[in-house]
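Title: Prediction job returns without error message
Component: structure pipeline
Severity: low
Priority: P3
Assignee: unassigned

Description:
Job completed but the reporter wants confirmation the result is attached to the right record. Sequence as submitted:
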Amino acid sequence: MIYLDYAATTPCDATVLKEMLPYFTNVFGNSNSLHKFGMDAKDALDIARTRIAEAINSGFEEIIFTSGATESINIAVVRTMKSLQKSGKNKFLTLATEHKATLTVANDLKSNGFDIEFLRVNYEGILEIETLENSLNDQVGMLSICHINNETGTMQDIRSIIEICHKHNVLVHVDATQSLGKTKIDVQDMDIDFLSASGHKLYAPKGIGVLFCKKTNMKHLRVPKANPEVEFGIRAGTVPVCLCVGMGKAVEIANKDIDKNWQHALKLRKIFVDGIESQLDEIYINGSEQSNYPGIINMSFRGCEGEALMMEAKRIAISSGSACTSNILSISHVLDAMGIPADIAQSSLRITIGKDTTEDNIAVAVEDLVNATKKLRNMSPVWDMIKAGIDIDSVFKR
C-alpha cells in the first residue's frame, strides 16, 4: 500500500533512529543526575536543544521539550491567557479553521469565563488583515494561528499578522506543526512569541514535541515552585532524552533539506493534479493557489463521498481531512469555515506527499482515484443530479 498521508504522521527517519538507539540502552542516565551517566544524557539533551534553536534562530533556553504540539499549545495558550487575565486581557482570538487541538483549548477557555472569538477566513482559507484589525482591542491578550493548515496546506502571512498584533500589544502563538522543517522559520526575524510543533510530522518519533517561548514571555508559563532544572520550570517529569535526541536530529535534517523537499513536493503535486484534472471533470482544489505548502493537496471529487473514495482506492493510504477528525463522517470544519459548498466539501480528500514519495507512487494514486471516481459516479444519484443541473448545495445539510 502506498502511503500518502504524511500530514497525519511520518515514519521515523533511519538516520534519526540510529542517532536515538544508544539512548535507549547504553546512555540511559537521567539528565538531571550529577554522575557520568546523567551528564552524558544532559550533553545529548543540550545538543538536541541546540539543533532546534539553530534551526529556528532562537535562544537555547527558549526551547522547551514537550510530548507534542497539543501539549505545547495547551501550555502556551492556557497559561498565558490566565496570566494576562490579571491585567484585564480576557479575550483570546483564533481562526475557525484551526486544528482541533487549538479549538478544544479555545472552547475550554470559553467555559472558564474567557471571551473567545473565532476569526473568519476567506474562500482560500486566509485570514485577511482587515478581519484581524477589526477584532483587535485592549481586551485581546493573544492570537493563536496555524502557519500551514493541516487540511488544505494554506499558508498564513505570519509576519504581517504578528506585526499588526504587536502594535496592539497582543501576543501571538504560531502552530507550526505542519511548517517546521518544511519552510524557513526565523522566530527572531518574524518576532514570534510562541511556537508549537510535533516530532512525528517531520520524521522524528511520536511522543515528542517542542514549544518555543520568547524569553520575555517565560514569566507567563512558569509554574510556581517548579524545578527550574527541568525544562526551565515550564514542564515537570523526567525528560525523555532518547526522544529529544530524535527530535533534534530530525529538525536538523529537515531544515537542511527544506528547499530540496519543497521542490520535490511541488513537482509531484503538479503531476498528481494534472493527472486527475486531465481525466475527470468537476474537480476542485481547496485552499490557496498562491500561498500554500505544495505537499498538502485537498481535492474534491464532486459527486462522490470522500470516505467512499478512500475505501475504493485500495492501493493508497490517504485521508478525508485531519487525522484527529477523519473518523467522523461530517463536513470538514475547515472547508465549512472557508465557505466551500457542502457537496464539494463532502467529496474532499487530503493527499499529502512525503520526501520519499515517488512519481510511480503518484501514478498509482492517480490511476486508483480516477477509476474509483468513475465507478462511484456511475452509481451515484447525486452525480446524475449534478449533470442535470440541479442545485446540489441546497440538498445537502451542513
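Comment from assignee: result matches the submitted record. The first helix runs from residue 14 to 20.
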